[in-house]
Specification:
Number of strands: 5
Shape: globular
CATH class: Alpha Beta
Order of helices and strands: HEEEEHE
Mean pLDDT: 89
Distance between the termini: 44 Å
Number of helices: 2
CATH superfamily: Fe-S cluster assembly (FSCA)
Largest sheet: 3 strands, mixed
Strand order of the largest sheet: 3-4-5
Length: about 100
């Protein structure tokens, strides 16, 4: 019986996805807000973008789906949340701002 990857394993795999305009991991930026395994075996990722009309949104969402699918072997749904991103959400502080 295969064991499904947990939140931390999926989140770690998503570190390879970078925001192409900022050049940082979407995880380090704090864009991944929730990862849930659904009853049907699919994965649901809830995330933010750094700006509401991010020109790389489609590419980032596609990379999140591909990376999660590769790890889980199932389908992934990505929901973009309306919450506004703020640098204080970052997991790392590369500029020493907070």
């Amino acid at each position: 019986m295969a064991v499904s990857p947990n939140f931390d394993e999926i989140k770690e795999a998503l570190r390879e996805v970078e925001d192409p305009e900022i050049g940082m991991s979407i995880v380090d930026l704090g864009l991944i807000r929730e990862i849930n395994e659904e009853e049907d075996g699919s994965t649901h990722v809830k995330m933010l973008l750094t700006t509401p009309f991010c020109p790389a949104a489609g590419w980032i969402v596609d990379q999140v789906k591909q990376t999660t699918n590769r790890l889980t072997g199932g389908d992934t749904q990505v929901t973009l949340l309306d919450e506004l991103w703020d640098p204080s959400m970052m997991e790392v502080d590369p500029w020493g701002l907070f």
